[in-house]
Automatic annotation (TrEMBL):
<dbReference type="GO" id="GO:0005886">
    <property type="term" value="C:plasma membrane"/>
</dbReference>
<comment type="similarity">
    <text>Belongs to the tetraspanin (TM4SF) family.</text>
</comment>
<keyword id="KW-1133">Transmembrane helix</keyword>
<keyword id="KW-0472">Membrane</keyword>
<feature type="transmembrane region" description="Helical">
    <location>
        <begin position="31"/>
        <end position="52"/>
    </location>
</feature>
<feature type="transmembrane region" description="Helical">
    <location>
        <begin position="59"/>
        <end position="85"/>
    </location>
</feature>
<dbReference type="InterPro" id="IPR018499">
    <property type="entry name" value="Tetraspanin/Peripherin"/>
</dbReference>
<dbReference type="InterPro" id="IPR008952">
    <property type="entry name" value="Tetraspanin_EC2_sf"/>
</dbReference>
<protein>
    <recommendedName>
        <fullName>Tetraspanin</fullName>
    </recommendedName>
</protein>
<keyword id="KW-0812">Transmembrane</keyword>
<dbReference type="Pfam" id="PF00335">
    <property type="entry name" value="Tetraspanin"/>
</dbReference>
<feature type="transmembrane region" description="Helical">
    <location>
        <begin position="195"/>
        <end position="217"/>
    </location>
</feature>
<dbReference type="InterPro" id="IPR000301">
    <property type="entry name" value="Tetraspanin_animals"/>
</dbReference>
């Protein structure tokens, strides 16, 4: 079960969360693959443990017990790290968003441009702290009119969105004015905290599994010894 949970978190991170995580200056793109790999290994080891139990191989059960302790240490460390470094991840988003705004729409920055558009559309936000962060960017300076923001800042309900040459009045009507950073931080706190807590919680199931595997292996060894005697 633990392996399936970690595998699911890894897939979820790769499929959904990466759209936000890749904008962080400290994001490690291999992290989802590590979670998927660890989850798959745990599922495999768990399956082997079941086979060992059915076959009654005490030596393999002892090995299975050792594997569970190693997995426990990995999961415990990962859960603690996720909770401890959550603050750094939040700052990483601040720095990453600042860099993304400067790179937006530039040659060779298609992935950053698409990721930022996706973020602003999905979280209905614009800029870092507010929409005016766009004013001091290459995108706005290269526009026909100053004080411009991307179309991804437009409100869905606005049919003919004005997103160039903005004033306070036209901005409040045509675009989303709230910045993305606070929304991303709220998203992190709403998801990373529980994920870290789940990782810590399920890690203790490995200890329980290791203890039960050890007791079973010891019982099998004793039974075999008594049969020989």
């Amino acid at each position: 079960v633990t392996g399936i949970v970690i595998l699911a978190i890894g897939i979820w991170t790769k499929v959904d969360l990466y759209k936000y995580l890749e904008l962080s200056s400290i994001y490690q793109p291999e992290a989802p693959y590590v979670l998927i790999g660890v989850g798959a290994v745990i599922v495999l080891i768990g399956s082997l443990g079941c086979c060992c139990t059915i076959k009654g191989h005490s030596v393999l059960l002892y090995m299975f017990c050792g594997f569970l302790y190693v997995i426990f240490i990995i999961e415990l460390s990962a859960g603690i790290a996720l909770l401890v470094y959550r603050g750094k991840l939040e700052k990483g988003f601040k720095d990453g968003l600042s860099a993304a705004l400067q790179q937006y729409g530039q040659k060779g920055e298609g992935e950053i441009t698409d990721a930022l558009d996706e973020l602003q559309k999905k979280l209905v936000c614009c800029g870092i702290d507010d929409y005016k962060d766009w004013y001091d960017t290459p995108f706005s300076r290269s526009s026909a009119l100053p004080n411009s923001v991307p179309e991804s800042c437009c409100r869905i309900s606005t049919k003919e969105c004005i997103h160039t040459g903005l004033t306070n009045e036209t901005a409040s009507v045509n675009i989303h004015t709230q910045g993305c950073h606070k929304l991303v931080v709220d998203f992190i706190n709403g998801n990373m905290g529980p994920i870290g807590g789940v990782a810590l919680g399920i890690s203790f199931f490995q200890v329980l599994g290791a203890v039960l595997a050890f007791c079973l292996a010891k019982s099998i060894s004793r039974a075999k010894y008594e049969q020989v005697a």
